[in-house]
Amino acid sequence: MRPTMTKRPLFAALAAAFATALSAQAALAQEGATGASFVDNFDKLDTGFWYVSDGWNNGGHQNCTWSKGQVSVSEGILNLTFEKKPLGERDYACGEVQTRKRFGYGAYEVRMKTADGTGLNSAFFTFIGPTDKKPHDEIDFEVLGKNPAKVQLNQYVAAKGGNEKLADVPGGANNGFNDYAFIWEKERLRYYVNGKLVHEVTDTEKLPSNAQKIFASLWGTDTLSDWMGTFAYKAPTSMQIDRIAFTAEGDACQFADSVVCLLN
Description:
Elements: H1 2-31, E1 38-40, E2 50-52, E3 64-66, E4 71-74, E5 77-87, E6 90-99, E7 106-113, E8 120-128, E9 137-144, E10 150-156, E11 165-168, E12 178-185, E13 188-193, E14 196-201, E15 213-220, H2 225-228, E16 237-248, H3 259-263
Parallel strand pairs: 3-6
Antiparallel strand pairs: 1-16, 2-6, 4-5, 5-6, 5-16, 6-15, 7-12, 7-16, 8-9, 8-15, 9-10, 10-11, 12-13, 13-14
């Protein structure tokens, strides 16, 4: 009987481990997520992880061309710069980075100081869309230069938006570094500014479901003045990012100031 008794616990343990692995694999496949938890403090720009947008614009509403020349890292800060520099079809150049991998449910965090100037948009967001053969899903933090005392929150589900909310940024988003985070779950989405919950969404029809890439971008407009303010260029300006992090749902807190630590 001893061999049988020895094998049963071992078999049970192996079966449980196999079932857990299958469950995790199924969850990953369901969401299409390929990225794991990470913290980037920008000691360097890892172009194997970040794709730098270069040589195009996103349409007639954007008055600048994405340029790798507007993306740099210095002293642990990622700088995305907007400046007057004729490039491609536009008279201005601007900067954007995006992850090469896609991420699912979890906590998304950025510590950033936004750019100065009406008509500009300093954005930290997640996005997936038709170019990736997926519906347009998106979750946004956007600081509009016309009013840096506020940050706009929004999400899109299958290209349907209209979920805008404004949250206060004490002291102004352009006057110092602030922490912005959202925690995305299957049935809930929570937005935080400097560790404070500022908005919660529980209507599942307003919650994205597709894994997305993480973006940081600075761009301008000549046409969306009702939303972003009248464009008025004065001098080059930069969106500065001290840290970007993602903590997958169920993973432990990764750094002391993380919103994940606050909740656990």
